[in-house]
Design a protein that fits this description.
The complex is a heterodimer of chains A (222) and B (672). With 222 residues, chain A is α/β, with parallel strands linked by helices. Helices cover 37% and strands 9% of the residues of chain A. The N and C termini of chain B lie far apart (59 Å). The chains are: A alpha/beta (222), B alpha/beta (672). Chain B: It holds the Pfam family NADH_dhqG_C.
Chain lengths: 222, 672
Amino acid sequence: MADAAHIPDEAETRARWGGFAFTAENLAKAQTYIARYPEGRQRSAVMPLLDLAQRQVGADTQTQGWLPVPVIEYVAAMLDMPFIRAYEVASFYTMYNLAPVGRFHVQVCGTTPCLLRGSDNVMAACANKGLVKGKTTPDGLFTLTEVECMGNCANAPMVQINDDNFEDLDYDSTTRILEALAAGESPKPGTQIPGRHTSEPEGGPTTLKAMVDANHDYRGEW
Amino acid sequence: MPKLTVDGIEVEVPQGATVLQACEAAGKEIPRFCYHERLSIAGNCRMCLVEVKPGPPKPQASCALPAMDNQEVRTNSDMVKKAREGVMEFMLINHPLDCPICDQGGECDLQDQSVAYGRGGSRYDENKRAVTEKYMGPIIKTAMTRCIHCTRCVRFAEEVAGTEQIGAVGRGENMQITSYLEKAVSSELSGNVIDLCPVGALTSRPYAYEARPWELKKTLGIDVMDAVGTNIRFDSRGREVLRVLPRVNDDVNEEWAHDKSRYAVDGLMRRRLDRPYVRTNGKLVEATWAQAFEAIAAVNAGSSVAAVAGDLLDCETMFAARELLAMMGSSLIEGRQTGLKYDVSSLAAVNFNSTLNGIETADAILLVGTNPRWEAPLVNTRIRKAIKHGAKIYAIGAEIDLTYKVAWLGNDMSLLGKLPDGVAEVFKGAERPALIMGGGALGVEGAMGAALVLVDTFNMVRDTEDGAWNGFNVLHMAASRMGGLMLGWAQPGGIADLVAAKPRLLFALGADEVDFSQFEGSFKVFIGHHGDKGAAAADVILPSAAYSEKNGTYVNAEGRVQMSDKAVFAPGDAREDWSILRALSEVLGHKLPFDTFGECRAAMRASVPALGVEGLASFEWAPPVLDATASGPVGYPIKDFYLTNAIARASSTMQRCSAELLHGEPILEAAE
């Protein structure tokens, strides 16, 4: 994995994060997550808790957060499960970052529908802004990751930045979004095509047209 | 009881059996990698695909499919053949073609099954993936590029060993099997994952590049590292035992062996006594057998003679020594080297009566001063299984990690007399209550009496619906203990009786744990195989054979009589123990009445008939009435699991395990 993220040295991480603990607010949230599962099945709450921990780390470091090993161990200990089991979960799901990321985690979808619809242009826009796959920009703002399908194929190509999806992108709109984020603005998430709302057909329906105005009965036409 | 047909053969299998098991019942071989009888079902290798009607028109993984009535299973159809070839082809996509340099070669499931079920050629010419090596400790050598992700090792660590340190990290193509943070796996049973691994990803580090399996002579043996009597196989080449593997015996060790059983054998080539020594002017000097015997005869001990038996002895040796002493007019023989003096008037009261297999069925277990994880790791796995079946475990002693949850009652033996109400309640209500006394508890005055009272109180010896149940168990740590007790190697006062008798001549038969300073005035003859503590204190050393170098009878903690075969010859001038005693007896003027090992064994069987019958010896349950007031803390006798006997102490693998796993010393890898 040439573009694998660099996980910091363990001793360093332990020194920095060894004393990690949930804030009072997050602890209360964690308790509600745990309470959702029957007694003895508390380890089912590992995923929301890891996410919570990652967000707290993010808040502490002014980034999107990541999961240092001591933090994973903290969560595992809280749920009374072996460390390796929590580590397996954290390493399985791409939404958990095992290495530090920047303030904006740019996740470009490169799977077939997005690729066909021009994810290369999105990538090019990112590259033009100085983003490198698997790396964080020197100013600590952007981390670029190429990910697999995010399920927004009707609005391909798309990119997920932090908790928002930006869809129907091209080179210019991607550049615009990145610039807006860098400038501290919050660009509109969702589709970037003016006039389109969500994933409805672009430029009006192409099938089932008669259904637009009324509940049309197609049975006779089959 | 579902009835189904497999390739036209009708079979009936128990409820809950899988299609794979049904196929095996019909005599059909189903290839598999992830499925293992003693582990949970994962169903991720897909090698066991079969065609099943009724069901979807595609091959099904038989290991994860319950057998049902009227199923028609086909294991030899074209679809199955193609499916297997396809799975095998996928498996080999990322498997390196390094069989010639792989230690698994010759005993590799993947190799065998690709020959039997594969396509015969590869269509793949893209790059293969490579995975970095993972460090898993001093026992396990890894080559993770070869891993096919069957997850047997992960399941073993979780389910059997109870040390959840191995896992699958990452996903998809990037999935890797690793120990947590690539640290050494701290399990006494870690070596078993080497056998479980169907490919060469996890191989044996001490045995790396030593031999090919077909070069090795296989001899059936019995392990002496603890009192479980693990059934093992010595793999030897020339005069060296290169490795030890467990054999399947469901009553004893299932198919596991702990790391000491497996890897202490390199100690058999180090620190060996290969010629007699006689102490002259305070120094041990090399001698001939004749000189050594003369030196012993010169003591002129008459009947002032005693003998101490070590922990690794076979019954024949102890019998020959007993006979020799009897002919000399002494009955001062003792096997409990460290000074234990528990009552042995009833052997049932010092036996593991529930049997190793039976303890799994207990529903409440009280551990008294025992650390089964170190004293008998394979008993510990049985207790884990009992917990899985719903047993409750309580323990008296200092708190330690036993790999499962234990309710610690405290470290005070007086608790035996006054169990907390909640605990007593559980034992009263239990169907099959059991109590396990460890070596630590045996050393506490009155503990055995108090435990026997508990047995009465909770009626632990009873008839249940599934037959007789005896819940009183003593967990010994020495392979020679039960055999020794059956042969009468015990004095009422323990070894103190021998000390008090001030014998002029003392035989130490592989006894390395004795405090020899007690025998200041005695002429000490050490008959053993390793230059350890016993040899250092001896006046005459007679080199003998280790457990791999002689035939022998052993009795394990549950009273199971088992025979071990000779794998290799003892080094140098060393001789088998019985023959040393036979030759010495002639010099001492009390000739033993047997000239061959067979005669020795026959004489032993005539004397103690139970030793002639392989299998569980039966001891009548007639517990003695003993002083039942015990108090005070109890200690665990084993301080270092990896260095409990002379062979293990001589083994560099065990030394490394001890240093790294128990004392946390970093291990320096050679720079490559």
